[in-house]
Amino acid sequence: MSQDIKVGVAGFGLAGRVFHAPFVSAVPGLELSVLFQRSGDTAQAAYPSTRIVRSLEDLLASDIGLVVVATPNATHFEFAKAALQAGKHVVVDKPVTATSDEAAELTALALSKELVFAPFHNRRWDGDFLTVKKLIAEGTLGRVSSFESHFDRFRPVQRQGTWKEQAGDMHSLLMDLGPHLIDQALALFGKPDSVWGSSRSDRDVTAIQDAFDISLRYTVESKPLTVWLRSTMLAADPSPRLLVHGTKGSFKKLGVDPQEPAIVAGAKVPPMEDPSWLQEAESAWGTLTLAPNPAEPAKLERTQVKTERGDYRGFYANVRDAVLGAASLAVTGQDAVRALRIIEMVLESSRTGASIKPEAATW
Prior knowledge:
With 363 residues, the protein is an alpha/beta fold. It has helices at residues 14-26, 42-46, 56-61, 76-85, 100-112, 127-137, 173-189, 259-264, 313-323, 333-352; strands at residues 5-10, 30-36, 51-53, 66-69, 89-92, 117-119, 144-152, 194-200, 211-220, 223-232, 242-246, 249-253, 286-290, 301-305. Helix 1 links the parallel strand 1 and strand 2. Residues 133-356 form the Gfo/Idh/MocA-like oxidoreductase C-terminal domain.
């Protein structure tokens, strides 16, 4: 690789500071060249050798080849479109846009300009997801009959001073965490037969919809498969992160991938060639419960399953390779369109109480 791809990150809040800048910096072939922070000096303090700009215009006027949009949700479409029109490859944090139509517009624009446009659905590189993906692919659980995935929190009091809890169509928990849970489910199972959902406000005082339940219905081997995707801000005792049942047994995983909390706590992401990046502690591994003889279902065997190593560096390594023409993009603009279309169906279902059938055109 003769020359690194220069990267500019727009935004240095939680997304830019925790999920983007550290992982861009750790991937060979990428250079964190410019940081766009409207005010404050936290970006300069964290990356003293990186150029700091105060406007999107200055960011786009620089010689970067890849723009990472990690600004507040409402700016995503405008900033990503401007970057693509300026001839830059683009990564956009979730939710990519407010609507599936906007995501489709960006996808088409990138295609017309032969540019990479990648939604930051980084949770495909979570260790728990990689583990359950492997178990399903290997047939360990038999035919899967139900799949339940949670991102639970306990925030009974609305936080002040954050745009994420201000009223607005893009500030619900569904728009915050829904894209991750939906993208993981679609990556595992593809297009559902139908979608049912509830997006609502559960806390006593809240400006946003702070809880959701989504049911995706499938048919596998002529049998039903039900996928439940759930999140709430009123889970003092959270549900399992993943719970999967099949004809041969079950898999249950508690806790969340350790990468985000580690970085928030001050951990440094090592270069990608360093294999020492987080391996989940054995105490957090999931439990696999199988019946060796289905005719004797009371005789069960329980084992701990080592969690596959999660690594968000893999997302950016794939983006690098896609920019260079060395690999296909793992998470595409069309994946963002599909996730947002599911969100729109959830909102419609929540209003009407009816299940919605996805249109073929989205897939």
